[in-house]
Amino acid sequence: MKQVKVLGPGCKRCETTAEMVKAEAIKLGIAVHVEKVTDYAEIARYGIVSTPGIVIDGKVVHAGGLPKAEDLARWLAA
Amino acid sequence: MATVELPASPGERTTRTALWLAGTAAFLVVWVLAYGQLVPVSDWAVAQLPLDPGSHAHEAVRFFLYDTPKVMLLLTLVVFGMGIVRSFFSPERTRALLAGRREGMGNVAAATLGIVTPFCSCSAVPLFLGFVSAGVPLGVTFSFLIAAPMVNEVALGLLLATFGWTVAATYLGFGLGVAIVSGWVIGRLRLEGWLEPWVRELRAGAVDLPVEVLKVVDRIRAGIDAVREIVGRVWMWIIAGIAVGAFIHGYVPADLLAGVMGKDAWWSVPAAVALGIPMYSNAAGIIPVVEALIGKGAALGTVLAFMMSVIALSLPEMIILRKVLSVRLIAVFVGVVGLGILAVGFLFNLLFA
Questions:
Q1: What predicted TM-score, i.e. pTM, was given to this entire model?
Q2: Which of B29, B156, B248, B252 is the most buried (most CB within 10 A)?
Q3: Where are the transmembrane segments (chain B) (predicted)?
Q4: Do A50 and B2 lie within an 8 Å CB cutoff?
């Protein structure tokens, strides 16, 4: 089970990003647990400046703007 | 099992890049041709309507039919260009460039990077925290946060469309000036103690983002995405603004506003700044109205001060920033930036008299 965290204060793009992660995981048949992190201090501790950010199993893979579907597939499959 | 696309062969990739470049060039040619036909096409369209030349309705419709395509064309071009420029920058990289910078040059760098770094106001708080906790000085952070929303592609594109490049360039210059000076002043005031306590203690984690290698095609795509997103968001406001502007243009008597918003009414600049604070960010809708107002005798400086105030000092943004800044610090921010905008308003009225 992959632990995915979507970092963002709860704007529309963060919601969309979380949905995209779930959809991509289902498509690839990868079990994921998606958690939304909205606390500013926690977001900052991950070291990102722009949101939404994506953390997979503790590693920051993306920051700022919507991710591309093909990148999501690559990160989830890694 | 994930299916991974096989990397395209170098030959295929070159062909694809060439196609994208050719497409972009074709788009630019069509753009130039369309721009050149604005006057004849809008004149022709108005002539098809049963309106008396010289009547109020004729003037209003002509203004609307000429301004709408012109504004849209210029806005699309500026947003597309800015989208490409921004693909070379990211907030994370900008922070790395600014961390540990001294004030002074740091403020100049921060304000300039504020224009070209992709920025969304919903990211303002994470950005502020990320900068301050990584050792970017408070005043330098403010220079970035003031310039980023104020000198944006929508404001620049619309100013270019309605007032020409001298006004757009002057807005850019003065916007940078306000951001640099305000940030520097805030830095000099040594207000780090006024941050919320948890913010002062926060230390950013080190981030090691995978480096994205963007190709020419990706950058062109970034430009197209920017057009789709930004023009898609603001076009309704622009058309609404042009419609109101067209009504003012056709029906409001000339010079009606000279007494209220003209450059001889000194109090109009502070009034415009104060009025701009509770309004939020629809520069898109405001500029066409402003164009019509100026046609009726309003002074350019007054009107630009209003615009800067609407964009740079917005109540909703202050409410968001309250989570990390004390009320005193927000008050200083509003005071310093407000004074800067006032100065710009008066100076513009003097320069473009």
A1: 0.83
A2: B156
A3: 18-38, 71-89, 138-161, 168-187, 234-254, 266-287, 293-315, 327-352
A4: no
